[in-house]
């Protein structure tokens, strides 16, 4: 049996996020879906898996159903497949942030960097003076990254602020491109860097997963595998699953 895996997020004002927890959890359980969804005042983030029809029903409910009232109309969504159910149970968790940067002044719903599609990403990387940042944690970078990318060597995403403050200079590093697994960390990272005075900040729309899905391996600038926080552990080009030991589900 093959399971459909949906990785999703959207930054959007959800002042009622606490009230959404129980009905969202029940909806997933009724559909036989497992995984983790995070809710916060700033939006939704998570990865879930289930049978094709169940996942399709859940996505339709999130986008158009009464629970969110049409607020998830710009949901960033990527699908992949798993030969076995990659999650043990269904969790809906309430958080202060759907991805933890730890700076309350950063608001991705107001201003983020310039999105770059996977089709345009290779061209951007060839531009002179571009600074390419991998915003993921160090163990993720070890499994794979883009040619020429800087590894900030962070253990958790909230350490990214320290890296920018000590290693980068808006006057010197005028054009920055960044990427992460699915795009969510770059939303916050780009918003933070723009607030710090960096002039041009670009980020890969849909993240590494969308790049591996859309860009043929023959034209790819990606080396290695992409770590994912479920029992598949890593995905390669075409979002083909790789075997290994399971990672712990995390939001940062």
From TrEMBL:
Domain Rhodanese as annotated: residue spans: 126-220
Pfam family, one: Rhodanese
Top-level taxon: Bacteria
EC number(s) from the headed UniProt entry: 1.14.-.-
PROSITE patterns assigned to the protein according to its UniProt record, in alphabetical order: RHODANESE_3
Keywords, alphabetical: Oxidoreductase, tRNA processing
InterPro entries: Rhodanese-like_dom, Rhodanese-like_dom_sf, TrhO, TRHO_N
CDD domains linked to this entry: RHOD_YceA
MF-aspect GO terms: oxidoreductase activity, acting on paired donors, with incorporation or reduction of molecular oxygen
Reactions that this protein is recorded to catalyse: uridine(34) in tRNA + AH2 + O2 = 5-hydroxyuridine(34) in tRNA + A + H2O
GO biological process: tRNA modification
HAMAP family on file: TrhO (MF_00469)
Role according to the record: Catalyzes oxygen-dependent 5-hydroxyuridine (ho5U) modification at position 34 in tRNAs.
Family: Belongs to the TrhO family.
Protein name: tRNA uridine(34) hydroxylase
Species of origin: Microvirga aerilata
């Amino acid at each position: 049996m093959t399971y459909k895996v949906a990785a999703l997020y959207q930054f959007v004002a959800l002042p009622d996020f606490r009230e959404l927890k129980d009905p969202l959890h029940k909806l997933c359980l009724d559909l036989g879906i497992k995984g983790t969804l995070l809710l916060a005042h700033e939006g939704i983030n998570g990865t879930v898996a289930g049978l094709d029809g169940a996942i399709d029903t859940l996505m339709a409910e999130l986008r158009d159903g009464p629970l969110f009232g049409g607020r998830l109309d710009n949901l960033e969504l990527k699908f992949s497949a798993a030969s076995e159910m990659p999650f043990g149970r269904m969790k809906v968790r309430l958080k202060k942030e759907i991805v933890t940067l730890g700076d309350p002044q950063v608001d991705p719903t107001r201003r983020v960097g310039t999105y770059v599609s996977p089709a345009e990403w290779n061209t951007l990387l060839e531009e002179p003076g571009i600074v390419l940042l991998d915003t993921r944690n160090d163990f993720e970078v070890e499994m794979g990254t883009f040619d020429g990318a800087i590894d900030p060597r962070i253990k958790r995403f909230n350490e990214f602020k320290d890296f920018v403050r000590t290693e980068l200079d808006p006057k010197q590093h005028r054009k920055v491109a960044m990427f992460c697994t699915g795009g969510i960390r770059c939303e916050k990272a780009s918003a933070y860097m723009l607030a710090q005075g960096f002039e041009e900040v670009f980020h890969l729309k849909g993240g590494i997963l969308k790049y591996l899905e859309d860009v043929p391996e023959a034209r790819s600038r990606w080396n290695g595998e992409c770590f994912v926080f479920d029992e598949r552990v890593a995905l390669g080009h075409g979002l083909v699953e790789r075997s290994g030991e399971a990672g712990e589900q995390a939001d940062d």
